[in-house]
Amino acid sequence: MLFGFVASMIEWRDAFSVGNKLLDVQHQQLVEIINQISTGLSASEEATVRQARFRVLLDATEKHFETENRVLAEILAGARRTSSAARILSKTAIETHIQAHSKALTQLRLIVEKIERTCGSEVLGHTEELVAWFVDHSVKHDADLKAVFQAM
Length: 152
What we know:
The protein has helices spanning 21-42, 47-77, 84-117, 122-141, 143-150. The longest helix is centred in the middle third of the chain and has 34 residues, at 84-117. The protein starts with 20 loop residues before the first helix and ends with a helix. It is mainly α.
C-alpha cells in the first residue's frame, strides 16, 4: 500500500455492457488491466513492471477501439443485420463515435504519462483519472453504441 492509501478500483457493472459479447469481453479485460495497475501502484510496484502493465493497457485499448470501429463499420455497410432505419439513424452517431476513439486514446496516453512522471501519494489521484477515463468511455461514450446494438 502506497503511503497508507489504496488506489481506485473498478467493479464490473452491467452499465459497462454495450450488448455486444466481444466488446463487452474487451471492456471486462480493460477493467482487469486497470485494476492490476491500481493494485500495483498501491503496492509501489517496480517501474519496469508498471511500464509493462501500461503497455498492456494501451495495446488492449487500441485493439478494443479497432474492434469497435470494425463492428461499427460493418453496421454502416449493412454487413450486420439491422434495420435500415436504425442504420440511417445511427450513421452520424457511429461516425462520431469512431472519430472519438483517437481522442480517447490520446487522453489515456496522457494519463499514463502523468502517472509515470508522478511519485508518492499523488499517483493515487491519477489512478482515479484512469478509472474515470474508463467509466467515461464505457458508460457515457458507449451509450450510443448500446442504443445501436439494442436496435439490432
